[in-house]
Amino acid sequence: MELAIWLLALIASGLLAVPTFMYAAECLLGSLPGAVSPTSKHAPRLPLVVLVPAHDEEQGIAAALQNIVAQLRSGDRLLVVADNCSDQTAMVARAAGAEVIERHDPSKRGKGYALDFGLAHLARDPRPVVVIVDADCRLLPGALDALSRAVSATGRPAQSSYLMVAGSNPARRPAVAEFAFLVKNLVRPRGLARAGFPCQMTGSGMAIPWAAIGSIELAHGHLVEDMKLGLDLAGAGYPPLFCEEAGVRSDFPETVEGRDSQRRRWEHGHLGMLAASFKRLLSRRTLGDPNRLAMTLDVLVPPLTLLAAAVAAVIAVGAVVAGLGFGLAPLSVAAASGILLLIGTGAAWVAHGRQVMPARSLLKIPGYMLGKVWIYPRALIGRSEQNWIRTDRTRS
Question: Fewer C-beta within 10 Å: the chain N or C terminus?
Fold first, then answer.
């Protein structure tokens, strides 16, 4: 009995050490000084199409499209897919100068279905590069040029530096959430790039060579279709690269309801990918392909709050096992994971996070973590979010 308890505790702490080590390595590499050097400065800027999936985005889509149009060049296209909209999204998008197609199929809701519908339409007159931009995002200057050149230089998909930032009310700034998003979408992809590995697709500012479009399946309602897309592209021989010089930004929802809804979708979707990725990790194809292996290990890193909670749990279990005299090995492995988690997160905060999350905001971390804990039991019992629901961005 003692041996079984010791062994189970050791296995649990050992399994958790793998994603914790991956997380810490990405954060440490991503926190080194300087940006990842662009490899596409002198590559030709290929014609592109910006594909914008939109669901009930009447209020903000005009500004988003004006931002995109300002970066288009001769030969480029701008296509909006108004997907299952109940408002005037299509009309507003046309008035803003976009080509618009409308899709109505309430039985198949999801960003993936909208993208698949848009790509089928584009097949009649394609461009060498497809750039997917969400309807609530804005491109930083030069983003489209940088993405097009990255694809041109490598023949691979490219993911922009896509970050969410505080809105117009600094008093309600979600500092901890903003830092967590920065770690996930900037620090860790930068770390992977520095190690020579591909990165995940993160949802907006995704550039895909048209040659790769036929190798992926988008017609699904998966909540983290971006993560699935990146893995599918890597599996088809098109591992995505991180294009840090292309910036895309979006504002956090300003209402508690909006932030909670957004958080549920992301967390549930990511948890749904963990089981599938663990199976993929054990496949011979993944183990024999360094790019697929790196991306799979990256997906196996849980959301930061869940990772921290899991590390704390295995440390507690290891302490109990050690206190009962069963051995120190489980506690030692768990404590090493805790140290790696702190070092990686601390390095990311020192290098990138002090502006978005000042030292005084560190006191908010326990409350932020407690506020997220309730998400996970619902997802684990199968009651995860399933529909593409527009994030509530109403100002409170």
Answer: N
Structure tokens at 326: 């069963």
Burial of 281 (0-12, 13-18, 19+ CB in 10 A): middle
Backbone angles phi, psi at 269, to 5 degrees: -65, -40
> 82-107 burial string, b = 16+ CB within 10 Å, else e?
bbbbebbbbebbeebebebbebeeee
Residues of the chain where predicted confidence (pLDDT) is lower than 50: 396
Entry pTM: 0.88
* 158-165 β-sheet, strand order: 99-103, 77-83, 48-54, 129-132, 206-209, 158-165, 241-251, 137-139
| C-alpha dist (Å) from residue 366 to 174, 183, 303 | 14, 18, 15
- Output the pLDDT for position 174: 73
To the nearest 10 degrees (0 to 180), the angle between helices 290-299 and 256-281 is 140
C-alpha angle with apex 369: 321 to 380, nearest 5 degrees? 70
User: CA-CA distance, 31 to 354, in Å (whole number)?
Assistant: 13
Q: Are 380 and 310 in contact (CB under 8 A)?
A: no
Cβ distance 257 to 391 under 8 Å? no
The rounded distance, in Å, linking the Cα atoms of 53 and 131 is 11
